[in-house]
Amino acid sequence: MKTFLSVLLAVTFLAGPVSAQVKQLPVDRNKTVVKDQPVKMQPGVKTNTVKSADTVVKQSPPAAATTTQPPAAATPPAYYLVSARVRVATGDDNKELQSGAEVRIFKLSYTPGGASPGDFKAYPGQRLLFETRDEPRREFKVNSTNEIDLKSIYSLNYQAVDIMLGYVEPYGFKAVITYFPNFPLDAWRINNVTVVLEIKDRNGNPHPYMGYREILFSPNKLLKAGDNTLELFIDKNFMKQL
Fold first, then answer.
1. Structural domains in the chain?
2. What is the pTM of this model?
3. pLDDT tens digit string along 172-215?
4. How many Cα atoms are found within 13 Å in the side-chain-facing hemisphere of 41?
5. Reduced to 3 states, what is the DSSP secondary structure of residue 37?
6. Which of 35, 122, 154, 190 has the fewest beta carbons closer than 10 A?
7. SS3 track for 58-104
């Protein structure tokens, strides 16, 4: 018991001086103490969020530029002069059964200025395109129309370039009818001649506006011995050349 009292007295003695050394700091009454106030938000107002400098904003790489190639232009089809024939309207003097006739169509290389259209030699470079072959001798009666088919020198399978439209049309054509009378006094009057030309592609499709051409001539020509040739000229537009 005595020991306990002695310890208690010792503790009380030590606690006294420590408490005496703790002094309260004076309060400066000139300073205003501001307490933290909660921030009130007004309705409808958004606050800006400030990102710290350490925040790295990643951006997507720009989209690669795409180049759109225009569609390739379609290659226009090639067209060819594939067939030719003539219709001959006989006047008041018929072609006898025994008398012969030949029809040819030429491509012209150029039209010489001032040359007479009747001069066969005035067209150097002309190329034969169509002709009659083994045409049977037949009568062309008075005031009748008869059609004569022509055979092509070239074809789509043989030197097609020679009948390609771009090759044959630049300077036009010449159709020639030659009469071979059976005897000197025989004669054949031709009132009208229609040259029929057809232009198609390799698939048989006609040209959009030149697929089928009829060129009408009205020569009213009497063919006879010594004057047995009729020449008809067609321009590059497949029209009658006067």
1. 80-234 (2.60.60.20)
2. 0.66
3. 899 999 999 998 889 999 999 999 999 999 999 999 999 999 99
4. 6
5. coil
6. 35
7. CCCCCCCCCCCCCCCCCCCCCCEEEEEEEEEEECCCCECCCCEEEEE
